[in-house]
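$ ./design --mode recover --in tokens.txt
reading tokens...
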């Protein structure tokens, strides 16, 4: 038996769960936890704002498929992180949020204690489960439960409150060997699988829609196999991007590509939708119509049939279900779908050629960026016009290599996400794509990137304001612009002040040249470009 503080016990629990990195900012309520981290092999990445810590934990979880961990102090520390946690909740990302609390005997008494607020209630809308540990002896049990929650079928953040007196208290501690908890296997209705395989095999114009559940379950090989067995085109959501390589013959486009998606959906006679909840953004505010013969596969039974009625609903892990469907399809004669292929290939090529004629600058810039990067490069994107173009035409070859806060669309995501991705995979290229408005939300994290000597190019589109909102004001408010123009700093001087690098690009060719140079550096580089970009239609 060893006498440890609650903070030390909690760190031992993190170590036992295999946590290697935590992102956070110290505060008076969590100093005992930080004292435990000081003696630990766990890497602590110090952020300049707690929102960035939550963004980093989110991105770390997305790229590694392991829980990301962020630490904040009580009160404003947690509330600053809530935007990041909401991002993870919306996109089903496993993040453990550890937050200091006031002393356990004062919680809920409203006595005016420093940082006093009902943190457990605050966390509930953005967490699958919320806990507040009320004694040092409860730490191992609650932490084990928290990590079990993070490995359930539909993953979402888990909040754990840490009263300062619990972290300060000492206890005889003997960490028992962790029990192995296997992920619960859902029993899939075999009749539903047979019906799905029969419906698909007899279809003339099948289409597959692949969502984030395909990436989460590592089901790309199974997805590709089913597509090949059917000869069916695959459309991915942004969360499912890379589940089938963009240069695969059966990859059609992403769901943000109008003119192709709506026409293919209209012509298809069967849709196999895997790991998607048919969100408003993916489905153009649900204006897109899907075939009546919809087969919907999702790990969360509540999502099946919620936004579009499903003829066949299958609740299960995407990888397991697709594998079973593939087995059944192999025993069924294939139909000739060559005419269908000519149809959807023709639609895709026609829209692509029109796009190149209408938006040559945007297409050239996006293609130039892709040409510089390796296939497994990780791109993190903010809510900016270049990233909207990327969502449509940027080739993505592997899952979890395009990170975007798709469900919550929080500004300021790209830079913190890039930092976390580079820490997770230091040997891979990582690039952040920002607008000037979004970059200014978390630009202080340049200090974090410099401090950790992370060679991250930051492609910064400087159009002097919120370009997408300007566009909406021009269209819907007869050009009456208000509060959308920004007074920006000199970004080159800003980079220099942080100890980072900068490069100004005025052409697509110069963007590529600056990007190549930035990728060779061990410091972050702001690659600023100011050429006009029109939002995609």
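writing sequence...
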């Amino acid at each position: 038996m060893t006498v440890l503080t609650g903070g030390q016990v909690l760190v031992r629990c993190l170590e036992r769960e295999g946590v290697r990195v935590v992102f956070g900012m110290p505060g008076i309520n969590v100093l005992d936890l930080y004292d435990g981290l000081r003696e630990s092999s766990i890497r602590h990445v110090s952020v300049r704002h707690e929102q960035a810590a939550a963004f980093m934990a989110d991105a770390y979880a997305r790229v590694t498929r392991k829980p990301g961990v962020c630490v904040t102090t009580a009160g404003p520390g947690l509330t600053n992180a809530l935007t990041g946690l909401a991002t993870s909740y919306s996109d089903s990302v496993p993040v453990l949020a550890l937050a200091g609390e006031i002393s356990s005997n004062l919680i809920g008494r409203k006595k005016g204690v420093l940082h006093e607020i009902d943190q457990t209630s605050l966390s509930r809308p953005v967490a699958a489960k919320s806990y507040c540990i009320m004694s040092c002896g409860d730490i191992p049990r609650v932490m084990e439960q928290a990590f079990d929650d993070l490995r359930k079928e539909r993953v979402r953040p888990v909040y754990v409150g840490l009263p300062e007196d619990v972290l300060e208290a000492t206890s005889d501690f003997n960490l028992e060997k962790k029990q192995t908890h296997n992920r619960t296997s859902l029993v899939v209705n075999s009749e539903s699988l047979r019906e799905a395989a029969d419906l698909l095999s007899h279809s003339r114009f099948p289409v597959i829609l692949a969502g984030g559940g395909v990436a989460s379950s590592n089901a790309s090989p199974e997805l590709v196999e089913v597509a090949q067995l059917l000869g069916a085109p695959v459309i991915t959501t942004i969360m499912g991007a890379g589940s089938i390589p963009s240069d695969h013959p059966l990859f059609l486009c992403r769901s943000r590509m109008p003119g192709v998606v709506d026409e293919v959906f209209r012509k298809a006679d069967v849709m196999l939708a895997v790991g998607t909840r048919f969100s408003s953004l993916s489905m153009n505010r649900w204006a897109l119509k899907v075939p009546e013969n919809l087969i919907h596969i999702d790990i969360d039974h509540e999502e099946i049939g919620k936004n579009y009625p499903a003829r066949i609903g299958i609740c299960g892990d995407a990888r397991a279900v697709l594998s079973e469907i593939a087995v059944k399809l192999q025993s069924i004669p294939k139909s000739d779908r060559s005419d269908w292929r000519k149809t959807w290939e023709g639609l895709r090529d026609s829209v692509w050629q029109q796009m190149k004629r209408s938006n040559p600058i945007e297409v050239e810039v996006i293609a130039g960026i892709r040409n510089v990067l390796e296939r497994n490069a990780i791109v993190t994107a903010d809510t900016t016009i270049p990233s909207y173009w990327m969502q449509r035409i940027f080739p993505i070859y592997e899952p979890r290599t395009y990170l975007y806060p798709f469900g919550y669309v929080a500004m300021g995501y790209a830079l913190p996400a890039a930092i976390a991705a580079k820490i997770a995979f230091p040997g891979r290229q990582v690039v952040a794509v920002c607008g000037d408005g979004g970059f200014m939300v978390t630009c202080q994290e340049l200090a974090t990137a410099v401090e950790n000597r992370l060679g991250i190019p930051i492609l910064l589109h400087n159009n002097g304001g919120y370009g997408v909102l300007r566009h909406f004001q021009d269209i819907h408010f007869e050009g009456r612009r208000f509060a959308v123009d920004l007074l920006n700093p000199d970004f080159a001087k800003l980079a220099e002040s942080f100890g980072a690098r900068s490069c100004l690009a005025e052409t697509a060719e110069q963007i590529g040249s600056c990007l190549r140079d930035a990728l060779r550096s061990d410091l972050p580089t702001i690659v600023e470009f100011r050429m006009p970009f029109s939002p995609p239609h």
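exit 0
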